[in-house]
Structure formats: structure tokens, C-alpha cells
Specification:
About 40% of the residues lie in helices and about 15% in strands. The protein is α/β, with parallel strands linked by helices and about 450 residues long.
């Protein structure tokens, strides 16, 4: 019998534990009405899809696949339109194309999409010009505008969040099922400004190489490679707002387990990774593959306690550790954690998030990240895991398919002065299309020793 059942876990068990980063609503009855409405709606994903991802993550943990997880730091309701969604899917497909070609491995494609609407904040309040208001916590909780009405936690936004997630996921599935991801025509993934990228020639060489290889195989076999016409695409988001996650948690009788059917792959952030806290209590009971963000302040003992609580049966594919230290600290902070996991034979996937530990402020007060620091942390991760006898199973990027200027550096050489041109993020800076594609190419180049 599953340990989660012997411990009498229920979707609301977390409510008896301390819960951080939760909004305060003025009208509890209104919250209950909204959650009841969400609970009656169809699930956003299926348990079969969730189990498929878990199997693929287990393969990545054995070095047979590579995980590409990427998307917005925080999705906005306003961006739920066709072009931004298609562009995000395009860049993830293009990056995976580069990775498959260069690493000679199948890629697990996971988008931070269709639910990444809540964000943890370092402070509950924000002060501007002497006015103090609640912090913006994501479109599912309140509004980014700085007024008392806009910053009030509004339970109606929970239902809007479900609706926008459903619309986004519906369009992604329509694109994928309609041949958008067909490897016979990767040129359809090109974004409008690809022709201006310094990487255009290299990318088109990869596309041509794959097209030639497929044409050769189809000529030899005398039949079409039908499996190349679509790809698996999974969704993920930080499972921060526990009432929202609970409302979409269902017991699947056939499987005999509870599933969070709001997403395939939820994760716990660094600010809510208390072993005795509400988030760990909630996550330990769902059958989804889950992840935990791991930062420089996490002690080996804390990490091992999380592994025991969240993956008591020690199953590969169940628990992913997404480490984020910063380029300057990874060589000091990562080895003790990897060694502790290895010595205790914990079955986990290691994924590198080289974004969050490298955030800094410009002189004008904008958040940014330097491409060279992001790449530096990623390259150090590969080296350290290999030296420690571990496997770096994937990468986790905050990125967009749009032509933004939020991170500096990269092939185009963006500087702090360029950021004002197209800085659109409401929370954290993202890699733009060119920088994300270059990052995938740098991963491949590292394998090839270039």
C-alpha cells in the first residue's frame, strides 16, 4: 500500500501545517464559492499524461533523456493570446531540436506554462512614495497596478486562472496535435526575427541535417516516420497557492492514488521548502512527479529530510532537485548536497536552474541577469556532476519566445543600456529567443568539446 495512504493523507492535510506565501482574503465565503466552482470543472491534465512524464523523468535520471524546462517567470493573463503562446512553444521546440541533434538523446519538453500565475515574494508589503500596499503576487491573486483595489487579494482571480490555464493548454495541444511540431517542417518554428540572429546559419545547418537524415531513413524504409509528426509536451508551475492546487486534486480510482490535475509537474520553491510546512505536506501525497528548488542556504540534512518526506519509496522519476546557486557559489555549495544524496543512495534527478542565483540590479534599478553568468553556472554544473559521479539530467530556464531585452550579453551583446528597449517582465528577467537558442547551442558545443 502507498505510504501516503497509510499516513492518512488528504488533499487538505496541509491546512494543519504552517503555510507561507499564502494570500489573505477579506471574504472567506467568496473563496469557498470559487474553489467549489473550480472543483466541479474538468481537470486540465490527465493521470495518464502525468504517469507518462514520470516514466520519462526516470529515463532522464538514468541518462537516457535530457530535460528541457522553460517558460515565463510569471505568466500574465494579458499574454494569453495566440502569438505569445505559439512563440513560447516555438522556442522550446527549437531548443529541443538543437539538443536532440547535438546530445543524441531524446528530450523531455516541459513548459513553465498554463498555470505559472502565482509568485512568491520576499516581502508582504511594497512601499512607493510613502504609500504601503500588499505586494503583487501574480495575476491569480492580485493585480500589478499600484492601488489599494488592485493589490487586494481577489478570489475571483482563482477561477480566471483556471480559465486562462485551460485556454493556454488547449491551444498548445491544438498546435502540437495539428502538426506544429512536425520534424518534417521545423522551418515552421522560425520566429520573425530569426533572420537577424547571429546564430541563424548554425541553426539552419542543424535543421537541414535533421531533414536530410529523415529523408534518408524514409527512403531506405519506404515509409514515413510518423512518430516525428508530433512530440510530448508537458506543463509545470510552482504549486504555491495551496487552496488552488487542492481544488484540482482528485483521487483516481483506477490508479488508487491522488493526482494534482492542474499540471503535470508541480514544484516547491525555496521559500516554502520547510520539511514540516504546508507545501511539503501537500506535495508528499500527490502522485505527480514533483520538484524542489534547492538554493545555497540549504544544508545537506535538510535536503535529505525533504527526500525522505517527498519520496519515501525512493523511486527514480518521482523527485527532481532543481539547484540554483549562482555562478559565484555553485562550486562551494553543490558538492556537499550531491555527495549527501549519493552516499544515502537517494533516487533523484538533478536539474540546473542557472537563472535565479544570478539576478542583479542595474544602476537604474532594473533586475537583470548576465548571459555569461548564466552560462558559467550551467557549465560548472556539468563539470561538478561529472566529477562527483552524478548526472545532470536537465536545465530549467526562464525564457520567452518574444524579442525582449531583459538579460544582458549573448551573441547580440546586449548591455544595460539596451534593457529599456523591450523590458516587459512583471517579475524576473527572461532570456529572449536568441539568448535561449544560443544557450542550447552552447550546451551542445560543450559536449562536442568546441
Amino acid at each position: 500500500m502507498d505510504r501516503q495512504l497509510t499516513k492518512k493523507w488528504q488533499p487538505d492535510s496541509w491546512q494543519s501545517h504552517a503555510a507561507g506565501q499564502q494570500p489573505l482574503y477579506a471574504d472567506p465565503a467568496a473563496v469557498t464559492r470559487v474553489l467549489d466552482a473550480i472543483r466541479r470543472l474538468p481537470p486540465l491534465v490527465t493521470c495518464g499524461e502525468v504517469d507518462k512524464l514520470r516514466r520519462q523523468l526516470a529515463e532522464a535520471g538514468r541518462g537516457e533523456r535530457f530535460v528541457l524546462q522553460g517558460g515565463d517567470c510569471a505568466e500574465s493573463f494579458d499574454a494569453c493570446t495566440a502569438e505569445p503562446i505559439a512563440n513560447k512553444l516555438k522556442i522550446l521546440l527549437q531548443m529541443s531540436l538543437v539538443l536532440v541533434h547535438g546530445l543524441k538523446k531524446r528530450v523531455v519538453r516541459v513548459g513553465r506554462i498554463a498555470g505559472q500565475y502565482a509568485k512568491p515574494r520576499s516581502a508582504d508589503l511594497e512601499i512607493r512614495d510613502g504609500i504601503t500596499l500588499p505586494s503583487y503576487r501574480g495575476d491569480i491573486i492580485n493585480h500589478v497596478g499600484f492601488s489599494a483595489a488592485e493589490r487586494r487579494a481577489d478570489p475571483a482571480l482563482l477561477l480566471r486562472g483556471y480559465e486562462y490555464a485551460a485556454l493556454t493548454l488547449n491551444y498548445v495541444r491544438a498546435l502540437v496535435d495539428g502538426g506544429f511540431a512536425d520534424l518534417h517542417h521545423p522551418e515552421l518554428w522560425d520566429l520573425e526575427f530569426v533572420r537577424h540572429s547571429p546564430l541563424e546559419a548554425e541553426y539552419r545547418r542543424i535543421v537541414q541535417s535533421i531533414s536530410d537524415a529523415m529523408s534518408f531513413m524514409e527512403t531506405i524504409s519506404g515509409q514515413s516516420l510518423s512518430d516525428s509528426s508530433s512530440v510530448d509536451f508537458f506543463t509545470s508551475h510552482e504549486g504555491l497557492h495551496l487552496l488552488y492546487e487542492q481544488a484540482q486534486t482528485q483521487f483516481v480510482t483506477e490508479a488508487g492514488r491522488w493526482y494534482n490535475l492542474a499540471t503535470h509537474f508541480p514544484w516547491i520553491g525555496m521559500r516554502t521548502a520547510d520539511v514540516d510546512g504546508a507545501h511539503v505536506e501537500y506535495f508528499r501525497g500527490i502522485a505527480n512527479p514533483i520538484a524542489v528548488k534547492v538554493g545555497p542556504d540549504m544544508a545537506p540534512e535538510h535536503l535529505l529530510a525533504l527526500c525522505a518526506a517527498l519520496n519515501p519509496d525512493n523511486e527514480l522519476g518521482r523527485l527532481t532537485l532543481i539547484h540554483r546557486f549562482g555562478a559565484a557559489r555553485i562550486e562551494e555549495k553543490l558538492p556537499p548536497l550531491v555527495e549527501a544524496v549519493r552516499k544515502t543512495r537517494k533516487q533523484v534527478l538533478w536539474i540546473c536552474d542557472p537563472m535565479h542565483g544570478n539576478t542583479e540590479l542595474t544602476a537604474s534599478g532594473l533586475k537583470t541577469r548576465r548571459f555569461e553568468n548564466i552560462l558559467g553556472e550551467l557549465e560548472s554544473s556539468f563539470v561538478l556532476h561529472a566529477r562527483l559521479g552524478s548526472i545532470l539530467a536537465g536545465v530549467h530556464f526562464e525564457l520567452t519566445g518574444d524579442d525582449v531585452t531583459e538579460c544582458t550579453g549573448g551573441a547580440r551583446g546586449l548591455t544595460d543600456n539596451d534593457l529599456e528597449r523591450a523590458y516587459k517582465s512583471q517579475v524576473d528577467p527572461r532570456l529572449n529567443y536568441e539568448q535561449a537558442l544560443e544557450m542550447a547551442m552552447r550546451i551542445v558545443a560543450r559536449k562536442a568539446g568546441k
